[in-house]
Amino acid sequence: MCGICGYISKKNITLDQLKDMNDTMYHRGPDDSGAEIYEMPGGWQVGFAQRRLSILDLSALGHQPMHSADKRLSVVYNGEIYNYQELKEELADYSFRSNCDTEVIIAAYLKWGIQCVERFNGMFAIALYDRATQDVYLVRDRIGKKPLYYWYEDQNLVFASELKPIMKCPGFVGEIDKRVLSRYLFQQYINAPESIYQKVYKVEPGAILHFSKGNIISRKYWDIKKVYHESVKNPIENYEEAKEQLKDALKKSVKARMIADVPLGSFLSGGYDSSLVTAIAQECSDSPVKTFSIGFHEEKYNEAKYAKAVADYLGTNHTELYIDEKDMFGLVESIPMYYDEPFADSSEIATMMVSKLAKEHVTVALSGDGGDEFFCGYNIYKNVAQAQRLDKLGGMVHGICSLPGLKQAHIEDKLPFRVRVIAGNREKESKTQFGAGNYLVRAKAMVKAPLTEGTASQEEKALPIHYLTESQYHVKDWQIRRMLLDMETYLPGDILCKVDRASMKYSLEARCPILDTGVMELSYRIPHVFKYANGDKKHILKEIAYDYIPKNLLDRPKVGFGVPLDKWLRGPLKEQLLDYSSYDFLKQQNIFDAGYVSDMIREYVKKGDAGPATGANYSKITWSFFVFQQWYQKYCG
To answer: What is the distance in angstroms between the CA of the first residue and the CA of the last residue of the chain?
Structure first.
């Protein structure tokens, strides 16, 4: 686990400047660093740098940039290739000098070319320079576990694991991409390929970016839509067989992720996914696995007692830390430092806290991420199924309310909230993304025109707040369609981003067994009825968990984590929020509609919310705005 950065440019970027860029990511790799510059024909220079968090082969032989023995190839890399030992056996004709997976990447490329990435099972962001062909490749893992940004302008390419090295690069101006803001305010994250800056992008999950003679081409080597449709052609129709195959795949995945030359543990919330991962890890371990949980003094948010019960049953070496609101609030100021573009999923705070706790004891931690998206675990999936059943009725209600006279009387606006949502859900490309229309209206209205006007140029037009891509999945079942959409957007853009930045803040590597290539692809072969069985979400995964842990320890309503956003925004953050939303400040900033936002925030602070049942709870969109302004003050103010 590391941080990487570099460039391919005709501009004069010195080695000291490259080192400065690299050192902005010290937290990602405090154990070692390397930076080198290579000459490329045609007046180009290639700079590669890396900050290392030593996990495998702790010796100097794992130092990066790493080169092939003949100096043809140079590589910097962030992540873990979990099947590197199996690949090493296939590459026996290569003379290995180290026992680290980075050298396996080099040997694999020399034998199979860039297609070698299709053989890698892991989480990774790779930059590779081939002197024989004068090609540079940037590669990101299938599901987007590891981040990889790039700035491309005037045929020059700068890349990094985080935005900070790119911001530090000589000549970078950093103009905000206003097109993404309304979507960010609503979604609370910025999804690939966009970033907060113009001309700065994220390499998409499962993609290879090829740089050659100043031009870049991106292609997918693993595409969720294609893999899903190929996999469903070969379903596992017998439930017991599907369960057994999934159980075996999970065992193999967990075992592979327990290979490390440093102490390893597991996050344990007491929910199904983390409990199952921990149980399998305990089964594979010769000694008690170290497990870590965060507890909250407020009973309605506290799952620590459930995690402890699971830990006691499994016999793990369990550590828990009870925190209060003051502890959480203390991390608010650090959000823009480690999430160096606006990111407003407030659960990042708890993730940072459990990462800090784990780092006091281990360097690697297993997590249960991915179970909800791949096995139908979120509550929204139950709502989506209901919405599909009521869609025709909703269309009729919408049609009646659109009749002359009724439309003018705004009858649809007077319907109960849930009926209004179903009736208003008429966009075919976003059928599974229904929600409070008031949020959409506000997210659009907050951003300064002409971004939301029809007269704006294509480059100025705001991105749609919803992802208008659902027809691309060619799936009639709304639940499956929404799960696939979440795998491509919410999972990499929010969940995995959250875990990566929170864990790396403390130089901790987080590994996700459920996001193993074999587990993901197998999940597509498992019939949906095995995942969502008579309204039981994540059914087959739960049944496997019950093989390890008694049902009564797991079967309970999910508590979830809640930051008291309203209390903070109307309390200790109130004056800061009012400063961020003052008319004069917004007018000078020239990003948001000064009058609209200033009035909206003051109304929010003064009157409070009408409650979530009406769709008028604006704490989340206000928090998104606050986090953006906090970020803006740090990097642009």
So the answer is: 32
Q: In whole angstroms, what is the distance from residue 94 CA to residue 131 CA?
A: 19
Question: What CA–CA distance (Å, rounded) separates 417 from 612?
Answer: 10
- Domain 2-222 fold is Glutamine Phosphoribosylpyrophosphate, subunit 1, domain 1 (3.60.20)
Helices 437-446 and 417-424, interaxial angle, to 10°? 70
Closest C-alpha among 366, 113, 124, 109 to residue 263: 366
Q: Is the pLDDT of residue 561 over 70?
A: no
Q: For residues 473 and 418, give the distance between their C-alpha atoms in angstroms, rounded to a whole number.
A: 26
Task: Give the residue numbers marked as catalytic.
Answer: 2
Q: Give the pLDDT confidence of 384-393 residue by residue, as tens digits.
A: 999 999 989 8
Q: Which two tokens stand for residue 101?
A: 């997976």
* In the chain, where the domains are located: 2-222, 229-285+305-313+341-376+480-554
Superfamily of domain 229-285+305-313+341-376+480-554: HUPs (3.40.50.620)
pTM for the model stands at: 0.95
Top-confidence residue, 121 or 607: 121
Strand, helix or coil at 498? Answer: helix
| pLDDT, tens only, 471-496 | 999 999 999 999 999 999 999 999 99
Question: What is the rounded average pLDDT for all residues in the chain?
Answer: 92
Distance CA 637, CA 188 (A): 21
CA–CA distance, 106 with 476 (Å, rounded to integer): 43
Helix axes 272-284, 239-256, angle to 10 degrees: 70
- Tokens 């994250």 map to which residue? 189
**What is the rounded average pLDDT of the residues 541-549?**
97
Amino acid at 217: I
- Per-residue DSSP letter, 366: E
pLDDT of residue 38: 97
